[in-house]
Each structure stands twice: as structure tokens, then as C-alpha cells.
Design a protein that fits this description.
With 307 residues, this protein is mostly helical. The chain has two domains: 2-79, no CATH class; 98-306, Vanadium-containing Chloroperoxidase, domain 1 (Up-down Bundle), CATH 1.20.144. It is built from ten helices and four strands. The chain has a two-stranded antiparallel ribbon. The chain has a two-stranded antiparallel ribbon with strand order 3-4. A hairpin with a 2-residue loop joins β1 and β2. α7 runs antiparallel to α8 (205-221), α8 (205-221) runs antiparallel to α9 and α9 (226-245) packs across α10 (251-280).
Length: 307
């Protein structure tokens, strides 16, 4: 009886904390919108005459009401999960785009020591063995489909959020972070594959690669159509599913790989201004070339500079 009471109290406390966090987020959104509107008002007052100033003030008042309405009503439950949003609250920064990756990676790490989650991995493996026979080798190619689409859609005329050079910088940085993270965890955390081929099951590199490309695809073309990003995530999810079907990974390996892919893509966008400044410096005297290097068991990026 005491255990049930304690569980009930914990659930109520969790709901309360979640409600407070959502409320704080909405307040922070409203403050950011109001600050932006105040800056607009100052710019209008400095550049327009007195007659134009009255028109501008009326417009900004309507814009302020519209922004606050969007913040508290139309967008009150729209908490960004995938987009990396950096909002200043004093000296603190809120990186809400890391919530989903952190959750997925935490699941995989907890699964290493959780009997319940390990049992779920084994049950999923047994289900695959009973229902599916043979391997489907599409996962070796599907993992690169979202990344190829990032450039393919641009070639057919769709406008990406960033130019070719910036997209390539983000893509290269994200894949380097992803590859380093996956390789380090595979050799540090030794987990036997379901097919007993080796001890490099955790995490799934194929899934991480697919989700890096899918997340960049989403970030670049979400203003064109959100279905483009949804399609990318669907392909990445199918890649992870095929890794389980082919008995190359446990479910927890795939979930962690997805988190690493999303995290690496977010870090690629976070670091892109740094690399952009490096490559732009002295651009009149040197040129940079970034090319992918793909092999059967290895992949990477070649970087060359001509002075």
C-alpha cells in the first residue's frame, strides 16, 4: 500500500514539474517575442518621420498582439524537439534541440544495465527469428539515401536553407562527430551482435548515419515542405529496423544510433559558423575542397586546401 502511495505521489510530482517547465518555456517565448518587437520599434523611430512613425507604431502594436497570441494560444504546446533553438535567458542558453537525442542515447545506455530493457531486446530478436527468415541487404544503401537527398533536391531546383558550401560543411562536421562517437563506443562498450559475428553491436552505425542525413534533410528543406523531412526520418527508421531484422543489432543499439545521429547533426549546425569563418578567411588567396571518401567498411571526408 505504501509503495502505491509513493508511486502516486511521484507521478503527481512529475506532472507538476512538467507543467512548470512548459509554463517557463511559454514565458520565455513571450519575452523573446516582446524583446524582438521592442527592437523593431526603436528601429522604426530612428528611421521614419513623425507621420510614418504613427503608422509604424500601429503596425507594431498589431504585430505584438499577433506574436503574443501565437506564443500563448496557437503555439502553446509546440515545444521544439528537433530544431536547435538558442534562446538567451540572462547568461543561460536553452538547447531544446538536444532533448530528443539525449533521451534516445540515455535509453541505450540504461538498457545495458536494465533487465527489463534487455529482455525487450531478446524478445524482439526472438520475434524476428520466428517471423522473418533471411536477410534484406537494403540497409547498406538506405543509410546514405537521406544525405544524398540533401544534395539531390537542390540539384532539381528546390531551395535549401543554406548554400552548397555551408551544407557540405555541416554534413562533413556531423559525419565526423558521428563516426568518432560510434567508433569510440563500439570499442569501449563491448556488446555481442545478435548473429554472434563480433562484439561491436552497440551502437548502430548504419542507423546513426541515416539519422544524420535525415536530420540535415529536415533542417534544410522544412520551409519547402515538412514532408521532405518526414520522408527522411522514415527512411532512417526503416534502416534501423532492417538492422534488427538482419540480426545485426539489438533494438537498444538502433535507438542509441538514432540519438547519436540527431546529436551529431545538431552539433554540425552549432559548429558551422566556426568552420564557415575558417574557410572564409583569406578566401582571395586559397581555396578549399571537401570530398566524401566511401569504401566498403570505412567512410570519411577528404579535405584539401590550395594556397
Amino acid at each position: 500500500m505504501d509503495i502505491c502511495v509513493h508511486k502516486h505521489k511521484i507521478m503527481n510530482l512529475t506532472k507538476l514539474i512538467t507543467s512548470v517547465l512548459i509554463l517557463l518555456f511559454c514565458i520565455n517565448e513571450a519575452k523573446a517575442q516582446i524583446d524582438t518587437t521592442v527592437v523593431r520599434r526603436k528601429r522604426v523611430s530612428a528611421s521614419r518621420s513623425s507621420g510614418e512613425l504613427m503608422k509604424g507604431a500601429n503596425f507594431l502594436n498589431r504585430q505584438l498582439n499577433y506574436d503574443v497570441y501565437n506564443t500563448f494560444y496557437r503555439k502553446r504546446i509546440s515545444i521544439p524537439i528537433f530544431n536547435l533553438r538558442r534562446e538567451r535567458t540572462g547568461s543561460a542558453f536553452l538547447y531544446s534541440g538536444l532533448i530528443m537525442p539525449a533521451s534516445l542515447i540515455s535509453y541505450g545506455i540504461i538498457a545495458r544495465n536494465s533487465k527489463f530493457l534487455r529482455r525487450f531486446d531478446v524478445n524482439a530478436y526472438n520475434f524476428v527469428c520466428e517471423k522473418i527468415s533471411g536477410n534484406i541487404s537494403l540497409d547498406d544503401y538506405a543509410q546514405f539515401a537521406p544525405a544524398v537527398s540533401v544534395y539531390g533536391l537542390g540539384m532539381i531546383g528546390m531551395k535549401a536553407k543554406h548554400g552548397l558550401r555551408d551544407r557540405t560543411i555541416v554534413m562533413a562536421t556531423s559525419h565526423l562527430i558521428m563516426a568518432a562517437t560510434v567508433k569510440t563506443m563500439k570499442h569501449t562498450i563491448s556488446v555481442r551482435r545478435p548473429d554472434n559475428s563480433n562484439n561491436e553491436s552497440f551502437p548502430s552505425g548504419h542507423t546513426a548515419t541515416a539519422f544524420v542525413g535525415a536530420h540535415i534533410l529536415f533542417r534544410e528543406y522544412k520551409d519547402v515542405s515538412p514532408w521532405i523531412g518526414i520522408g527522411g526520418y522514415a527512411v532512417a527508421t526503416a534502416t534501423g529496423t532492417l538492422r534488427v531484422v538482419n540480426r545485426k543489432h539489438w533494438v537498444s543499439d538502433v535507438v542509441t544510433g538514432a540519438g547519436i545521429g540527431l546529436f551529431s547533426a545538431e552539433m554540425g549546425y552549432m559548429l558551422s559558423p566556426v568552420f564557415h569563418n575558417i574557410f572564409r578567411a583569406g578566401s582571395n588567396h586559397k581555396s578549399w575542397v571537401i570530398t566524401p571518401a566511401l569504401e566498403r567498411d570505412n567512410y570519411g571526408v577528404d579535405l584539401s586546401c590550395q594556397f
